[in-house]
Design goal:
Keywords: Signal. By secondary structure, this protein is mainly beta. It has one domain: Jelly Rolls. The protein is 15% helix and 47% strand. A hairpin with a 5-residue loop joins strand 5 and strand 6. The termini are far apart.
Length: 129
């Protein structure tokens, strides 16, 4: 009987950890990709009901797109129908660009970075200026 309750306890702990994983978010998250690759930041960033910042840097053509989750588990790409701008682009000369970006409280955010003709491109999102 004891063995059965120990197994039940461990199963309950595993289920709680799996359910809690989306709740663990960072204050900032970055991703770096190389030529003709794209990737999304590994950790979501919590919106705090204030402006945060998205940044893109690289040495050639690159782009960054914001994704958000309203708390329902669905990640959506920022579009022209959403308020403000949720993307950045670098031309063939590269460089660095940033945008102060409003992050709704209770929402989570990630960025996806594409490196076209850039040998390296890095995208960052953080929930403070």
């Amino acid at each position: 009987m004891k063995k059965k309750s120990v197994v039940s306890f461990f199963l309950a702990v595993i289920v709680l950890l799996i359910a809690a994983v989306p709740a663990f978010a960072a204050n900032s998250s970055s991703i770096t990709v190389s030529t003709y690759q794209h990737a999304m930041t590994p950790l979501p960033v919590d919106g705090l009901g204030q402006y945060g910042k998205i940044t893109l840097s690289g040495n050639g053509d690159a782009s960054l797109y914001v994704y958000y989750n309203k708390g329902d588990g669905v990640w959506r790409q920022w579009t022209i129908n959403d308020p403000g701008t949720g993307w950045l682009f670098l031309s063939s000369t590269g460089g660095s660009k940033y945008l102060d970006f409003y992050m709704n409280i209770g929402w989570q955010y990630k960025v996806e970075v594409f490196a076209s003709n850039s040998t390296s491109a890095t995208g960052t999102i953080r929930n403070t200026l």
